[in-house]
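U., I forgot to send this yesterday:
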Amino acid sequence: MKKLSITIQCKPHSTYITMSGSLVLSQALYLKSKFHDICASNKDLYIDIKDLSDIDLNGLSALLVARQLTNQSGGELFVFTHAQSPLFNLLSNIKFTNQLQFRDCIISNPTLLLAS
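Result:
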């Protein structure tokens, strides 16, 4: 299990979060508490999970909390991953893709998004 690494970039109308490592138990609970501050700004939230190696129910719950808080503040949540990734396949198989807006892309420059 790899330690969770999080990068947050705040822009005028959106916030970009890039995660790598493991989004499990204590890391997910910590992130969930941080989402209350991050999502309260009326901004769209973009979360790049393409480099996550592990996620558990706590991590999935954290993503749902981010969606709920972002929607409550008037923004939208978008989750970026590769459609061929094992994580996306897992989320598709458990019908989690119905809960979040997924995009197949890499955020290389947060000012320019290429989504398919």
